[in-house]
Amino acid sequence: MDRVALRGLKARGHHGVFPKEREEGQTFIVDLVLGLDTRAAAADDDLAKTVHYGIVAEEVVAVVEGEPVDLIETLAERIARTCLQHEGVLEVEVCVHKPDAPITVPFDDVTVTITRSRG
């Protein structure tokens, strides 16, 4: 399976279990790896035969900016479902970063990574 990756998509969301997270929001970063077969697109040099990653990026940002959820696990699942709605995408790996998570000790990042496929 071929891969198309989008790294570092940034959006502000209001996800989290604490009231401050819901009220103030924070930046979330999303990395995606889309699994698909790119041979037909490459053979014909045709965007219609692959995934339009610009549109996927816009849709993922809309999910992050959309309805708040408590868990980034839930957010990752919503993002995966959105990506799999694209006809050519057979599999997706989603990594959601929450670099400003409310943790009381020094840390660099918190991530949740999931892989989902059709069927």
Characterization of the model:
There is one protein chain. The protein has 119 residues and is α+β, with helices and mostly antiparallel strands. Helix content is 32%, strand content 31%. The chain has helices spanning 19-24, 39-44, 53-65, 72-84, and strands spanning 2-13, 26-36, 91-97, 111-117. It has a 4-stranded antiparallel sheet. The longest helix is centred in the middle third of the chain and has 13 residues, at 53-65.
Uncertain segments: none
The run of helices and strands is: EHEHHHEE
Number of helices: 4
Average pLDDT confidence is: 97
Please, what is the oligomeric state?
single chain
Q: Output the strand order for the largest sheet.
A: 1-2-3-4
CA-atom Rg in angstroms: 15 Å
* Strand coverage percent: 25-35%
Amount of helix = 25-40%
Number of strands: 4
Task: Note the main sheet.
Answer: 4 strands, antiparallel
Describe the secondary structure blueprint for this structure.
Layout: E1 2-13, H1 19-24, E2 26-36, H2 39-44, H3 53-65, H4 72-84, E3 91-97, E4 111-117
Antiparallel strand pairs: 1-2, 2-3, 3-4
Helix pairs in contact: 3-4
Question: Main traits of this protein?
Answer:
119 residues; alpha+beta; 4 strands; elongated
In short:
This protein is of the alpha+beta class and 119 residues long. It has helices spanning 19-24, 39-44, 53-65, 72-84; strands at residues 2-13, 26-36, 91-97, 111-117.
